[in-house]
Specification:
By secondary structure, the chain is α+β, with helices and mostly antiparallel strands. The chain contains three helices and nine strands, in the order βαββββββββαα. Helices cover 26% and strands 29% of the residues.
Length: 203
């Protein structure tokens, strides 16, 4: 653990943010859980089954996290510690809340903490976002699908291209998106063929 060093250390890790339980301060704010004196137990679920829980108690300038954790199937250990908060002004008025990462030597101002032995920022756990683990072909397919959604076309590059211009879209915009879609589709199909070639070479 620890937060010293480059903010790009996560590139060398194997896990992504989806692999960890998380607490989002924006959600806590919307739910009124940052009001002093509020205490509430939050439960995570996976495939419809409870997968963990934590009690969050709000105090002036901080929240107290209270939960149990164990390492690799060992004995359950209680954890209880404060996470201090900060605020910054918003351009349109009001303020935005942040966690100050509690990992030793860190203190980064972040919106989300990820839970391992302690809850800390993604930099401390060297986590990537799921999209950063994508292969280039998969990324191209996802971007092509985004264009198909904008066009109102059926999903999936294997459905083929050009199902017509959406009503109200300028022709110049439509033609640009078609070019982008076709280039991304070609890039994705090349990735599929390369993958199949490597897969077939194993036999």
């Amino acid at each position: 653990m620890g937060g010293s060093g480059s903010g790009r250390h996560w590139q060398f890790g194997a896990d992504t943010t989806d692999d960890y339980r998380s607490i989002d301060i924006r959600w806590l704010k919307r739910e009124g859980l940052l009001d002093s004196g509020i205490s509430r137990r939050i439960t995570w679920s996976r495939d419809g089954e409870a997968a963990g829980s934590i009690n969050i108690q709000s105090e002036p300038g901080r929240v107290i996290l209270d939960y149990r954790q164990r390492d690799r199937g060992g004995e359950w250990q209680p954890e209880r510690y404060p996470v201090y908060l900060a605020t910054t002004p918003c351009h349109m008025g009001g303020e935005r809340h942040w966690f100050l990462c509690p990992a030793r030597g860190c203190g980064r101002r972040v919106a989300i903490l990820y839970g391992g032995a302690i809850f800390a920022c993604r930099h401390c756990y060297r986590l990537a976002y799921p999209s950063q683990r994508e292969k280039p072909g998969d990324r191209a397919a996802r971007r092509a699908d985004r264009i198909r959604d904008k066009m109102g076309w059926p999903g999936g590059i294997l459905e083929g291209g050009d199902w017509g211009k959406p009503k109200g879209m300028h022709w110049r915009t439509y033609e640009r998106l078609c070019r982008e879609h076709d280039a991304l589709s070609d890039r994705s199909l090349v990735g599929i063929m390369e993958h199949l070639g490597r897969f077939s070479g194993r036999f």
